[in-house]
Amino acid sequence: MRWLWIGAGFVAAALSQPVLADDKQDCLGHKDEQQRIKACSAIVDRFPTDAAAYDQRGTAYRHKGDLDQAIADYTRAIELNPNYAAAYNSRGLAHASKGDYTRALADVTKADELVPSTKPRSSAAKATDRKPKLKVARAKSNATLDAPNEAPASAWPTWASK
User: Fold this and answer.
1) Fewer C-beta neighbours within 10 Å, C or N terminus of the chain?
2) How many structural domains are present in the chain?
3) Tell me, what CATH number does 41's domain have?
């Protein structure tokens, strides 16, 4: 009897692999956002700690215009993987779409900090670290963010106006 259960388990696992592969493909890039949400939700149901599935589902929700659900999914992805730069960036885009530029800037900045620089740095560049200049620039830009939504649209980066 025990072998029967073990055999049934192998059959179930073998049959579920193609379904899982289809869900992964649909979750990663199906053209129909509703199908994408359905596929990502199926993965989340099976693997509730899959940050990428939450991120991809959030993107599908964002493309559909459901920004609150998108932000919730991006936030869950970040909770599962605090170093997930793509989720921070995507959440920043969702916040910008809602007009919350303070949160958008914070998320995009965090994403930028998490992505390692791909350019090789010379020894001279390493000796003169550019971070203080960036902090000054961010401090100046944060001064305009203290009054949310009051800065002129021209003051925002080009991605924020889309």
Assistant:
1) N
2) 1
3) 1.25.40.10
Determine the Cα–Cα distance for residues 90 and 108; give it in Å rounded to an integer. Answer: 8
- Does a structural domain hold residue 72? yes
Identity (one letter) of the amino acid at 69? Q
The one-letter amino acid at 32: D
pTM of the model: 0.61
143 falls within a domain: no
Range of the domain at 40: 12-114
Residue 78 inside a domain? The answer is: yes
> Cα torsion for 28, 58, 78, 118, to the nearest 10°?
50
pLDDT over 90 percentage in the chain: 51
For 41-92, what is each residue's pLDDT tens digit?
999 999 999 999 999 999 999 999 999 999 999 999 999 999 999 999 999 9
Residue 155 located in a structural domain: no
